[in-house]
Amino acid sequence: MEQSEWERTESSLLGRDGVQHWSGWLAAVVVVGTFSISHGLGGLVAGLVTAVVWAALGTPSAIAAGTVLLIAQTPDGVDPLGAAVVAIGLFALVLAPAVTARDAAGYAAVAVLTTAALGVLAWLAVDPLGLWLTTVVLTLAGLTVAYGLHRYLRLRLGMLGRVEEQSTEDTP
Amino acid sequence: MEPTRRLWAVAGLALGLAAFGVVLARPVALVGSVLLAGWILSRQYLFYRATVGFSEELSVTQVSEKTAIRTDESVAATLTATVGQSRRIECVLEAGLPITAAATAPLELHLSPEQRRASMTTSVQWPVAGRHSFEQATVTVTDGLFREQWPAGPTETVTVEPRGPRNFHVGAGGDRIATAYGEHDAGQLGSGLEPAELREYVPGDTADRIDWKATARLGTPYVREFEAETDRKTVLVVDHRRSLDQGPVDETKLDYLRELSLAITDSASQLDDPLGLVTVGEQGVTERIHPAATPDRYTTIRRTLLDLDTTGQSSAGLSDSTQARLRGRQPKTLADVRRSLATLEAEDGRFADRLRPFYAQRQQYLERISEDPLYGAVETTLTREQGPVLTVLCTDDRAQTELLETVKRATRNGGTVLVLLAPTVLYEQGGLTEVERAYDRYVEFEEFRRELSRIDGVTALEVGPGDRLSAVLTAGENRSVRAHAGGGS
Predict the structure, then answer these.
(1) Cα B65–B66–B68 angle (5° rounding)?
(2) B412 burial via Cβ count (<10 Å: 0-12, 13-18, 19+)
(3) CB–CB of B192/B161 below 8 Å?
């Protein structure tokens, strides 16, 4: 049941308007602005490229492109403040669809909380654990949250009780 | 909640960025990974909310047109889905058809985000008998990133009955009888195991027949008699002519009579009664199995009965010798009649003139009877068998005169006859008005059945679907009540 007409990597729950809505374009402007503020003219170009990628391929690709361009802009190492400014710009892309989402507040809350939590976790873990272990920790943390939500959905759909009943019936 | 390929691509992108950062030793790459993880989780939350809301609004029904059917019957099954308000989630519903059901097209519904109601009907065939329950319908929703499946809606149970006679009625005048064939009195005393009576010793009785205990108790010699052990030779005569094909598919007269014949075969097998079979087609005997009490014989008879079908071109089923025998066969009395007629024709006088039409009519009648395949079959069969024979005649009530003569022929030489009659009126399809008319015809049949039963040594029983018989009898009763009420007022 793939949606062939929906080429961009987005949830159909946000609709086409989720991308073409003014909030999306506003987020793209924020990306260009934050890149420009933190990295000058080079940042402006990087921001524009990121915005183009966003318009063509969607938010995940734009985040990946923006991150790679940020690394490329600072070959000698990025200052935390500059990285935070660019991250806020890119986060605007994540947050923009909240305007068109049915549960805007819930969506925004989840986006802010999960991103902030994972960001803090990465910040805290990267020094003591090193980069690759931090990657593992972040992956496990993300998977745990995703799996928890998956199980909770099945519980709400009444499928967990059903499985337990079946296994009880099967027991001699 | 399963991730789609698109979601795997985003997850791969996040891990790729992290790997990129590890390779270049640039922790800032984790910023992208964290943002992508936040993006995935926020989308997952959206999907969770949408799915829960959708499941609460969704109403699914799956209905079979009929819930009580016969094997191989096709009935329509309908799947309907209704949702409360518009939503942006794709949905596919699949009916939970049992594995034993064969649908002409998959019973699936695609509910686009704009649709509030969708329905689909398809024809489903049920080849396997039994009670079959639908599983709950399976609902699959996706937003392009996640997919979830769950069962929804009520289930339906379809009862599939095997084809063939059902609600079997064997009886007389609408009353069911318990057994038509089974254990039987020998009607004579002799050697055996079942004690019959005690009688006083008479000269001529051998000493070993004296019951010493009874003699001591009663003070005078007594002899104990026993029931004689006998086997009852039985010949099943099964009519499978065209008229026996009447009735719904697999519930024809022949199907009912076949079931009963099989039951008699089983009973005879249990009692070790010698059993034979004669099947009668349009032009004569199509199969003849002589009576014997061997397991092979019972099996052969059973197989023959199961293979039996109504025949319109019975000469194909006749052996040359059988046809020759049938052509050459003449009832013994026919020659006498012809001789008498010839004598009368040669004579003059008022007495001969008066008698001649009666003899001519009698001759015509006997020729007609002799041409009847059932009569011929019974005649040739009983001529061969020695001793008393129980003839079980399985036929219908179409040719009543011929059947009457056949039964009379079978009772000659001390034979007994069990007539299993399929009343035509019970195998006709018709509505309520026809049922009332059918009652009159059933009464006519009943008179004929009683006429048969009045013959010594004959038991005539009706065989047919009990529900149809009940409907006919009820219609007759209602009419009587109405007539009575009309007369009273």
Answers:
(1) 165
(2) exposed
(3) no
Closest-CA distance, A51 to chain B, in angstroms, reads 15
- How many angstroms separate the CA atoms of A60 and B41, rounded? 13
Helix (H, G, I), strand (E, B) or coil at B264: helix
A145 in reach of chain B (CB within 8 A): yes
Count how many Cα atoms sit within 13 Å of the Cα of residue B410 in the half-sphere of its side chain: 31
The token pair that represents B408 in the structure block = 């009379």
Residue B144: which of A2, A74, A154 has the nearest Cβ? A2
CB contact under 8 A, B31 and A86: yes
CA A120-A126-A127 angle, to 5 degrees, is 115
For residue B241, the tally of other CB atoms under 10 A from its CB is 22
Sequence-ordered list of residues with C-beta below 8 angstroms from that of A53, at least 6 positions apart, any chain: A61, A62, A65, A66
Give, for all 489 residues of chain B, the pLDDT tens digit: 889 888 999 999 999 999 988 888 888 888 899 999 999 999 999 899 889 888 888 889 998 888 888 888 889 999 998 887 756 678 899 988 888 888 888 888 888 877 888 899 999 998 888 899 888 899 998 888 899 999 988 888 989 888 877 778 888 887 877 665 655 555 555 655 667 778 889 888 888 888 898 899 988 999 888 766 667 789 999 999 888 988 887 888 999 999 899 999 998 888 888 999 999 988 788 889 999 988 999 999 999 999 888 875 434 444 444 444 444 443 444 555 566 667 766 667 777 777 777 766 655 555 555 678 888 888 888 888 777 888 999 999 988 888 998 998 888 877 889 999 999 988 887 655 677 778 888 889 999 999 999 998 899 999 988 888 888 888 888 877 877 776 554
B39 contacts in chain A (CB < 8 Å): 59-60, 63, 94, 111
B24 and A10: CB-CB below 8 Å?
A: no
Q: Which helix (H) or strand (E) holds B278?
A: strand B275-280
Q: Are B185 and B226 in contact (CB under 8 A)?
A: no
Name the residue among B18, B55, B88 with its Cβ closest to that of A13.
Answer: B88
Helix (H) or strand (E) holding B124: strand B117-126
Looking at this predicted complex, what is its ipTM? Answer: 0.89
Q: Which residues in chain B touch residue A110, judged by CB atoms under 8 angstroms apart?
A: 41-42, 45
Are A114 and B6 an interchain contact pair (Cβ–Cβ within 8 Å)?
A: no
Which of helix, strand or coil describes residue B480? helix
Q: d(Cα B85, Cα B452) in Å, to the nearest integer?
A: 74
CB contact under 8 A, A83 and B25: no
The residue in chain A having the minimum alpha-carbon distance to the alpha carbon of residue B111 is: A1
Neighbours of A16 (CB within 10 A): 14
